[in-house]
Amino acid sequence: MRIFVIVLAVAGAAWWLLAHRANRTSVADARPRVPVATVPVIISNIEMHVAATGNVQAWFDVEVSAQVSDNISVLYVDEGDVVTTGQALVQLDLREINAMCDAAAAARVSTEAAVRQMNASLTNTLRQFGRTQQLFREKVIGQQEYDDAETAVTLARGRHDVTIAECNRLTAQEKELGVRRERYTVRATFDGVIAQVHLDSGAYVTPSVPVVRMTRISPVKVQVELPETQAPDVRVGQPANVRIWTMAACVFTGTVTRIYPALNARWRTQTVEIMCPNTEGQMRPGMFARAEIITGRTRALLVPDVAVMKLSGSGITHMYTVVDNCAQRIDVTVVTELGAYVAVAGTVHAGQPVVVKGQLRVQTGTPVIVTPTAMLP
């Protein structure tokens, strides 16, 4: 009797479950189907990249100072002027140094004249000494006269050498003054642009006071900060695409040229420099930039970006597929963004249909009807 009761109870429970499922199926079948459009998941080779933000900086940015102290006589440049290596930027007052150069030149000319006199005097003394030697061998003169003639030759040679040395000293001094006079002209040390002029004509400058600031903006360097989790993927020589905040439609290509050896201890980021050609001067120092450094290529699953949705207030991303004419949610992870497509990872496979239109009207279990996009309301 007890066994019969148990069998009866089991049979009743099974009947109730079947009836409830049939009821749910009939209710579900009765619900209106939501029209959706789907596209298949595709697999393709994509470029892997890491994204970072930073600032545009000049390739060179130098404060140019004078090498001597004096007043500015002429300013040859203004802010924004393009200059070349060796071009004169600023001329200091040359009056004092010119006077010193003229005095040195006059002293040199006078000494050269004295050298010519010493040459003539030495030549004459040597001739006299030659005649004295002949007379001394013929015993016409005595030893004293011979010694006096020999001493005169020695003294003449000494005076000649001293005059030559003085002439050489004055010549070297004149060359030194010429070099110093050249320093009174401040010249550009590289091809670039005058970013700022600090002083006006008439100002007194010293070697410690900058006169102008020069920059080179072709090429430029974009300095970005990478999270330490992405830093190991970046190498010198990797290509990069750079976008400027104010020129979203323009993409500038560059190359990673430097990776700083130490991380920023405060932000746990690594500084990377990207060199970008800037022949048209569109990129200016100080601009905000976003860079995508291409680290390699890999095969990935691609879906349209409109298919991927994000739950509000969470970091969970998901999309919908169609299974047995019903919508089914799939949680995915966005690997990288590729314009109208995104690479995803998760429980998804190539060829699987994903909803690209109507996904906001469905949830897991919603009956759907797949129709062409053009036929959707």
Overview of the molecule:
- The chain has 377 residues and is α+β, with helices and mostly antiparallel strands.
- The chain folds into three domains: 31-45 and 299-375, conserved putative lor/sdh protein from methanococcus maripaludis s2 fold, CATH 2.40.420; 50-60 and 216-297, Efflux pump adaptor protein, beta barrel domain (Elongation Factor Tu (Ef-tu), domain 3, Beta Barrel), CATH 2.40.30.170; 94-183, Helix Hairpins.
- The chain is 30% helix and 41% strand.
- The chain has three helices and 19 strands.
- It has helices spanning 2-30, 95-137, 143-182, and strands at 34-40, 42-65, 70-75, 82-83, 88-92, 185-187, 192-197, 204-205, 210-227, 239-244, 247-259, 269-276, 288-304, 309-310, 317-323, 326-338, 341-346, 353-357, 368-370.
- The strands form three sheets. The protein has a six-stranded antiparallel β-barrel. Strands 6-5-3-8 form a four-stranded antiparallel beta sheet, with no helix packed on it. A three-stranded mixed beta sheet has the order 18-1-19, with no helix packed on it.
- A hairpin with a 2-residue loop joins strand 16 (326-338) and strand 17.
- Helix 2 runs antiparallel to helix 3.
- Residues 22-28 have low confidence and may be disordered.
**Text of the CATH class of the largest domain:** Mainly Beta
> Architecture of the largest domain, CATH level 2?
Beta Barrel
SS summary, helix count: 3
Radius of gyration: 46 Å
Give unreliable regions as ranges. 22-28
Q: What coarse outline follows from CA principal-axis ratios?
A: rod-shaped
Please provide the count of β strands.
19
Mean pLDDT: 86
What fraction strand? Answer: 35-45%
- Biggest pleated-sheet summary: 6 strands, antiparallel, barrel
SSE pattern, N- to C-terminal: HEEEEEHHEEEEEEEEEEEEEE
Termini separation comes to: 63 Å
Strand neighbour order, sheet with most strands: 2-9-12-11-10-13
Structural class: alpha+beta
Name the CATH homologous superfamily of the largest domain.
Efflux pump adaptor protein, beta barrel domain
What is the helical fraction, as a range of percent?
25-40%
